[in-house]
């Protein structure tokens, strides 16, 4: 049997596949693994959405080749759609759901272009000295500019109260919100944020050996809160971590389901496990804390920490104050 | 203008989109962001492959609805294909590339079914005591079973030499291999593995303060090797990490491009940054090391460490020796 013939024989098997059940759906739903049979023998069929071809020929005809474009909504210059790739005339195609999601920003600005242009990413090592001399002052300026008002408004009960899912007051006080990226229903992709009530902790850099007991209590309280909110989740199915650098300088802890597919939010060089921070503090001598160690993490080149601190340091100049 | 009318107006914009250039392709190539214009005004069009519908109606007709199935290769019971979803008769559809990748395992076994059935994931905290009493003996049994022979074969130059991209001998000796998941050409998704030549380090648990200098030298050598192999990459575009638990108990370090999309391999609770391990060791008193701290990480429920050690511990029984 020639290769072509073997290939055709293999191709002929696929349409004969009889579904028994779905084994797995992952990669943000873009891969399915089906268990079934062909000719009464068991078979597994994996199907995944392919990458887009990125050559200009295909990209330039891409928009015009779309079919069944259906608008789902619009807000100002933003609108979103479902669509199907290619031209589908057949009856069975009509039964298959749209395979593309579209977003249109029209008209767009330079800011949109910058936002969607791939940023180069750099690894930086922030020593204790760089933190004290440059990064902590940056955090302070950032806080003084009023960028935390939205956090304080939530903590003080003035805004977004409908999103607060859980709240405790006091020195070990905190409140729990859904992360913006969570659909608020799929439990295996649960993503919550816990904002602590105390305001003296700007980031994990402020944690010292003196906070070990407080951190352990917080951990227990966060696991209790999340499993109370979602009783079908067990406490050891929850992953807790902090970002460094965080997006805002008021201490907050991410709570995610351990099955949530790992993306940038959970990535090494960005996410620091709460338990491993506790463990790192426990391994330190008395009087020490996270402000005394080097931390290595990544930054986009458009991040102010890169442009104003780490790039000048790399180039042998003093960081700017901007 | 009614909502339907506004929707139709929005839908009519899409086919008018004139491509200027591709801004970004991410999410494993499954999202593209195109810059262009509509009616001479700038526009951004984002297109992403949708998740598969997972209801039985669609899944049961899925295989039969595929078109243009093209076999790419086969090996024993495994074969792989490209295909298009839906029925495409039109001329422009023929110009669009296949939007699906398929894998068929036929006939498959119970082992395949188990492999592709979603595993529940658990977070565990491995204390210094649990490590010494249970996990280290597990590692030792694992090493004694000869599971490292393939590593020693590579280190001693007996097998897979065609894959060795870089090698240095001595106490700071190591060799560099491409990770199996890397396509060996896309630089922004570079993923290399460095196997150290010395055999006394089974995992990051064996690292102590005495290894700090060695680790710093290794870090520098790995960055040098990778940037020598790929001169267009700068050293601060490389991320270095170790897994805990690793797949095999001979110390190896992952080297990835900082732009590589973060997945499970880089996830908190699995990936430990090399620099942050060094930093953690530096923060410890003399004589201490990674064997003295608690480590929190995740395990699939089918992992032997879960079934034989952590599940029995959770249930208050002693771990089994199996």
Automatic annotation (TrEMBL), chains A, B:
One GO cellular component term noted in the UniProt record for this chain: nucleus
GO molecular function, one term: RNA 7-methylguanosine cap binding
SUPFAM superfamilies reported in the protein's UniProt record: HIT-like, mRNA decapping enzyme DcpS N-terminal domain
Swiss-Prot/TrEMBL GO biological process terms: deadenylation-dependent decapping of nuclear-transcribed mRNA
Alphabetical list of Pfam families matching this protein: DcpS, DcpS_C
Domain of life: Eukaryota
Active site: 252
Family: Belongs to the HIT family.
Protein name: Scavenger mRNA decapping enzyme
